[in-house]
Amino acid sequence: MAASPHTLSSRLLTGWGGACIWYLEGRAMRESPRRFLHLLRNVNQQWVTFQHINFLRRMYVTQLNRSLKQQIKPKPEPAESPFLAKTSLDEAKAEICEMRPLVPSSLSLSRKPSEKALIELEPTSVTEGSIALGKETKEEKQWKEMKLRADDLPGILARLSKIKLTALVVSTTSAGFALAPAPFDWSCFLLTFVGTGLASCAANSINQFFEVPFDSNMNRTKNRPLVRGQISPLLAVSFATCCAVPGVALLTWGVNPLTGALGLFNIFLYTCCYTPLKRVSIANTWVGAVVGAIPPVMGWTAATGSLDAGACLLGGILYSWQFPHFNALSWGLREDYSRGGYCMMSVTHPALCRRVALRHCLALLAMCAAAPALDVTTWTFPVIALPINLYISYLGFRFYRDADRKSSRKLFFCSLWHLPLLLLLMLTCKRRAGEEGAGAPQS
């Protein structure tokens, strides 16, 4: 059995010398493992320092490239999503794992500061991007002063007067003038055309003036000029006055007093009856249908100077056509009308809305059949108008049965081409002067 170093030293030396040697040997044996571990720790620290320097170098290159890209782009990059942030973090972790063969296995815990630095760097870039975007949206949402330029004024006034609706009113007036059993007078026609257009612009402008607080709550009307503040209410009222006065004057003294009275009555009916009634009762739909039925009657009276059965027939066709047209349109805007505070048939009485649309689709069939009996058209007209009247009646039935947005949209778009085509067929089959009874069937 081998002797220990302590036993060997005690045999060789005795006394004070032996005790000193024994003490030094024991201290050397106790300090040797501690120094060895300290040496390894220093080596490990050197390797960790190299890993940190290499990682920071890569992060510096990455941040430098990103800053250069941001300088090239005119706008800051959008804020990264959490998924992208997580992806970039995983890529950084993969880079660290590739460097692991350079580091001893005992240094697995030394990567935590690097990952922490990475996590701190990524949210910093995300925060900077979100702050930049927040500043942009804040600047966009700030109130800006609306400046009225002269070149923008015609477009604003056209939207104020609802130029598309005015074009429809003028076209139906022209159809009534052309269908009247009288010689076509171009001067009278032009005065009727201009006067009716001015009266329609005045009525639509006053309507928008009254409905500004309610139009601002609807997506369909929130971009109107008065709602957006593009023009002042005083300018809108002045424009309406400048349209109404010459328009009624042209119809009264340029055409005849009956047409002027109808034009003035229609402005009053639209602005003082229909507009406030929209927030009170569903009867506004019937009142609005009367407003739309008067323009062709005005065209007839402008040509003949009298109200007779033909004028009433044209007014009846326009009156019935508006119910499938407007009821189908309002069906898709029920949420908008309810937000605006309007009392519409599609909102408060949906079943009645569909029934009324179907009834007036069928009424168009009857009134087209009555046109030759009243000497407005020949007997060919109800025959060639039958297909389009049957089609709109079929779509009215689908709307009544299905009660969905798809059927209402089909009925609405059908009404857009049905009316001009029907009026064109009436003009084609118009009974000329001196042809009374020529187109009637022989007995």
From TrEMBL:
It comes from the Eukaryota. This is Uncharacterized protein. It comes from Ovis ammon polii x Ovis aries.
